[in-house]
């Protein structure tokens, strides 16, 4: 069977979580693209890849004709990278978040539909075994009928780099995991409206608003509340947050 061929775009920190499974699945990485050519070369050397290091995505796609592209770039670049790859005839697997704006997200969906290429965004936390057990427990009605869902998330994350400069680092790059888990735990429930207040707490080392309080109105009368901060140096939760729910017995 012919090996699947991939171009990886983005050789930053998150790529270290992607190269091992790509290699394990016997994917042939034919090129690594990054604006920092040295970073691309380092990843190729680190994982012993027979791949080209380049800064030119379009040229890499034309030269190697991969089956799919792995987009590991910063959120602001996702739309351009994804649309370029889709139009070149490649499927795309991307790191979250999908895009930096709703307009970009709608454009990406449109290009995927027009080209007939698959576009998939990774939401890895929903596939954690612990989360699957929660979903199955709720689905089986073992805790009664859910009426409310809540999540608190507090961590002091010192990343450096692009997250420190983002306008909305928590909702866009982290809380999206928790929002996705709420939908995963309640598969028949959809959000219909939200009130969200973003703010940047005193002492924050982030440029943008890195804390938020959100209230979601959901279908079936369920309310989902979220409180989070990525610059909380005390009272840490896990990366998955501290969940809770209110139930009425049937």
| Strand arrangement across the biggest beta sheet | 3-2-1-4-5-6
Instruction: Give the percentage of residues in beta strands.
Output: 25-35%
> What class would the helix/strand composition place it in?
alpha/beta
Based on Cα principal axes, name the global outline.
Answer: globular
- The sequence of SSEs as H and E is EHEHEHEHEHEHEHHEEEE
What percent of the residues sit in helical stretches (DSSP H or I)?
25-40%
The count of helical stretches stands at 8
Strand count: 11
* CA(first)-CA(last) distance: 53 Å
Major sheet = 6 strands, parallel
Average of the residue pLDDT scores: 92
- pLDDT under 50 segments (min length 5)? none
Radius of gyration, Cα only, in angstroms? Answer: 20 Å
């Amino acid at each position: 069977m012919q090996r699947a061929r991939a171009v990886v775009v983005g050789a930053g920190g998150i790529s270290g979580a992607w190269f091992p499974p790509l290699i394990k699945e016997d994917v042939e990485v034919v090129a690594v693209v990054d604006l920092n050519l040295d970073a691309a070369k380092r990843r190729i050397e680190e994982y012993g890849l027979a791949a080209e290091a380049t800064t030119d995505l379009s040229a890499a796609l034309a030269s190697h004709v991969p089956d799919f592209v792995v987009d590991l770039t910063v959120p602001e670049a996702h739309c351009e990278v994804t649309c370029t790859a889709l139009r070149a005839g490649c499927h795309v697997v991307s790191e979250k978040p999908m895009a930096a704006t709703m307009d970009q997200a709608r454009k990406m969906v449109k290009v995927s539909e027009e080209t007939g290429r698959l576009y998939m965004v990774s939401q890895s936390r929903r596939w954690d075994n612990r989360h699957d057990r929660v979903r199955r427990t709720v689905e089986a009605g073992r805790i009664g009928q859910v009426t409310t869902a809540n999540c608190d998330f507090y961590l002091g994350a010192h990343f450096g780099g692009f997250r420190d400069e983002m306008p909305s680092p928590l909702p866009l790059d982290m809380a999206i995991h928790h929002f996705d888990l709420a939908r995963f735990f309640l598969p028949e429930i959809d959000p219909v409206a939200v009130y969200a207040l973003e703010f940047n707490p005193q002492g924050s080392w982030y440029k943008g608003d890195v804390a938020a309080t959100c209230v979601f109105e959901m279908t079936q009368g369920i309310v989902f509340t979220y409180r989070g901060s990525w610059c909380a140096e005390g009272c840490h939760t896990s990366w998955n947050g501290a969940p809770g729910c209110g139930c009425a017995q049937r």
